[in-house]
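Contributing new records

If you add data, match the layout below exactly. Sequence lines come first and carry their own label; structure lines follow with theirs. Keep one chain per record. Anything else will be rejected by the validation script.
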Amino acid sequence: MTGAKVTTESGPAREAPEPPRPRLSVIVPLYNEQESIRPLYAAIVQALGDIGCTFEMVFVDDGSRDDTAEIARQIARFDSRLRLVKFRRNYGQTPAMAAGIEHARGEILVTMDGDLQNDPADIKHLLEQIEAGYDIVVGWRHNRQDKLVTRKIPSRIANVLIGRVTGVPIRDNGCSLKAFRAELIKSIPLYSEMHRFIPAMASIAGPRVAQIRVRHHARRYGQSKYGLSRIYKVLLDLMVIKTVTTFASRPLRWFALLSVPLFLVSFGMLAHTFITLITDRAQLSLPLAGTGIIFLASGTILLCSGALAELIYSRGDIRDNEFFRLTQTIQRHGGGISKAQPTQPVTTLS
């Protein structure tokens, strides 16, 4: 495809050439951030203007109920560097981030929150480490401006747990301010709350990961969309990550490992039943025999599931993320607006 259909305010649709690929894409998921979006846009433009590289901004409206999308649309009408991706309803931060990554065209992708707590001025330092040869650069929030009991303490516990389970010792997994090489991040499937586990998921490919200290500001407008309710989702996702990173290439081993105890217990029960049947039928326990059969069936099902997973894996990469639906992608091209359907060790730096 050589061009995009563009509808101008003064005439019908016409063909417009695709703009050149920018060096940097800044991806910002937004949900009910109408007060923040204008100062955020201004801060990003100022920070990236000082860097001097070509860039674009990809704002993802995650089904906001306020005027977030309309304000972003107004900005996109006069600044072609801003692209707006709009969801029909609220899907959550990870799907919003995944949509932004999918639509970003830059060689380097930077993700950040839209509530003004991340400082766009820190993007420069992330880029410096990418230029130094790292594939992923993770920010960790110095002097974090959040509530101690509901945010900071659970976050610290989660970071230690995630590091122990995944073997990737990230100091602040919940910090959205990160930089990635596009070819790496675009190959990682994101769903549920997986955005915080990107370094762990990417560890399979052996990237060079650095983490640097970044600023964190108090929230100016509205209230945080996150609370203690997200903890159980993180724990479930952590189990998935452990499975993926440890047994991804050989799922049969994982299922076989789970089925072995079931087979051992079932064989013991059935052997006892068989011996009793021969020696002393009066002591025969039908419930014990039934339980042994259930354990045997469960182990067989697990083993067959592992074989099926092995077959699916061997047939290719299954990563069609159709879990979100977009209404439109909005970007200014020349004289008008286009609306396109969506298509190992960590180095800590001071």
